[in-house]
């Protein structure tokens, strides 16, 4: 059966019930480790075992690196499964085969089997374990040549770490998810580098010096086969709208930069370095192939430009201080009139707002459609503490916020603060409702 088929052959009500059950599950369990995921993977017959897997961890940039890897592997003629999170519009976005979302039909066939298998392991089912197992089953059924797995949280204890990999990637290190990963760059780096495996090569993007030392120590302890560092073993040089990649496995001239932002060239360099490192695994490429793969990447919600009724909107999922700093640098000199901001209450809202408040004269706060959301009034109170003289407004919801921004915007409207908010915006602009589940 075609995984990408859109034919509705299942019970929609039953499917929605399954999704609701999935999203009610806990995200994690203290002291659980990877035992539950190992038990579930074994119960399902270890789907995906034997398929070359690239695991990508990091604070920011994971999704972009994964998207570029998928696009370039596809250009090289490979059959690719891509697992990412969260979704923006539809749950099925988390699972892509050859750049296409899998169908609801395929998920509806597998999800009840996996939920039942999880209940038989003796461990309470957890959301991320079920979702990871679902991706592995979908990719195994599709017969992909490669799997690219984005780590959801941390790395050492993320469910994706159960799966054997042929490449470990750490994109960046910053302060995020501190309640789970630690309050220092060193602690977070240790968790991210926890994906390293004995005998498996690793690639690392630009990271702070404090984090670099920890990552190097973990790599030595784990016995990785080789380490490649951004700026040392590979780099990218940008000249106008083109870039040149230089790495130990080759170079590429005339690369386009379809994803916008000052950080994206570094993400591209990391993806290229990893891709070129797979030549011993049957991946053949030439410069034209890689240029085509780079140019055809698709990754929504990262400085994405949408124009509607003459008004320009920029959507970016900057949800932590590091990402907000990068976003602010990317928009230096731009005419941004209004920021629409929403965030989750478990995030460093203050640290995220600091660089963004300097960027715009006006902010409209709204509450993201999530039980974990920080209220719009709370967001305004935090902003008032940080910059008392700012022009702050509170909207009932995102639709209201967009209308408020339209009324007096004399420039671009930026929507940022949470990928969930970006998903709501895409749904509003595309007329597809709100995020599923």
Brief descriptors of the model:
437 residues; alpha/beta; UDP-N-acetylmuramoyl-L-alanine:D-glutamate ligase; Protein-Tyrosine Phosphatase, Chain A; 2 domains; eight-stranded mixed β-sheet; six-stranded mixed β-sheet; 15 helices; 39% helix; 18% strand
Task: List unreliable stretches of 5+ residues.
Answer: 4-9, 433-437
Instruction: Report the portion of residues in β strands.
Output: 15-25%
Characterize the quaternary organization of these chains: single chain
Class of the largest domain, according to the CATH hierarchy?
A: Alpha Beta
Describe this structure in words.
The chain is an alpha/beta fold and 437 residues long. It has 2 domains: 12-295, Mur-like, catalytic domain (UDP-N-acetylmuramoyl-L-alanine:D-glutamate ligase, 3-Layer(aba) Sandwich), CATH 3.40.1190.10; 304-430, Alpha-Beta Complex (Protein-Tyrosine Phosphatase, Chain A). It has 15 helices and 17 strands. The protein has helices at 12-24, 35-43, 62-75, 104-119, 127-142, 178-181, 185-192, 209-222, 264-276, 287-295, 321-330, 349-357, 376-386, 398-408, 419-430; strands at 53-57, 80-83, 95-97, 100-101, 146-150, 167-170, 202-204, 227-229, 234-239, 242-247, 250-256, 304-308, 311-316, 336-341, 362-365, 391-394, 412-416. The strands form 3 sheets. It has an 8-stranded mixed sheet, with helices on both faces. The radius of gyration is 21 Å and the shape is globular.
């Amino acid at each position: 059966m075609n995984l990408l088929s859109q034919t509705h052959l299942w019970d929609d009500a039953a499917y929605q019930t399954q999704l609701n059950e999935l999203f009610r599950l806990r995200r994690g369990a203290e002291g659980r480790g990877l035992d539950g995921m190992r038990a579930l993977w074994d119960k399902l017959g270890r789907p995906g075992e034997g398929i070359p897997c690239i695991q990508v961890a990091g604070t920011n940039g994971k999704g972009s690196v994964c998207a570029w890897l998928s696009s370039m592997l596809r250009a090289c003629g490979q059959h690719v499964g891509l697992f990412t999170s969260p979704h923006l519009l539809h749950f099925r976005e988390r699972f892509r085969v050859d750049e296409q979302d899998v169908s609801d039909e395929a998920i509806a066939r597998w999800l009840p089997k996996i939920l039942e298998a999880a209940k038989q392991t003796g461990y309470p089912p957890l959301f991320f374990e079920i979702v990871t197992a679902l991706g592995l089953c979908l990719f195994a059924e599709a017969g992909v040549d490669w799997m690219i797995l984005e780590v959801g949280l941390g790395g050492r204890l993320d469910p994706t770490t159960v799966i054997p990999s042929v490449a470990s990637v750490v994109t960046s290190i910053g302060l995020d998810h501190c309640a789970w990963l630690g309050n220092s760059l060193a602690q977070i780096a240790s968790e991210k580098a926890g994906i390293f495996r004995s005998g498996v090569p690793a690639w690392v993007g630009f990271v702070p010096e404090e984090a670099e030392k920890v990552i190097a120590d973990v790599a030595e302890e784990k016995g990785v086969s080789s380490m490649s560092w951004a700026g040392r073993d590979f780099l990218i040089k940008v000249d106008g709208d083109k870039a040149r990649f230089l790495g130990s496995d080759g170079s590429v001239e005339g690369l386009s930069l379809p994803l916008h932002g000052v950080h994206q060239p570094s993400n591209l360099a990391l993806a290229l370095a990893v891709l070129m490192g797979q030549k011993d695994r049957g991946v053949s490429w030439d410069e034209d192939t890689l240029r085509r793969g780079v140019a055809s990447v698709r990754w929504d919600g990262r400085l994405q430009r949408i124009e509607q009724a003459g008004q320009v909107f920029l959507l970016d999922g900057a949800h932590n201080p590091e990402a907000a700093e990068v976003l602010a640098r990317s928009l230096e000199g731009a005419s941004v009139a209004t920021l629409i901001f929403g965030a989750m209450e478990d995030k460093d809202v203050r640290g995220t707002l600091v660089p963004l408040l300097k960027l715009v004269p006006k902010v409209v706060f709204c509450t993201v459609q999530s039980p974990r959301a920080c209220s719009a009034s709370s967001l305004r109170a935090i902003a008032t503490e940080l910059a008392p003289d700012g022009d702050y407004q509170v909207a009932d919801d995102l639709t209201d916020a967009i209308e408020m921004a339209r009324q007096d915007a004399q420039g671009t409207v930026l929507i940022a603060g949470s990928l969930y908010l970006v998903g709501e915006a895409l749904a509003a602009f595309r007329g597809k409702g709100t995020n599923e589940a």
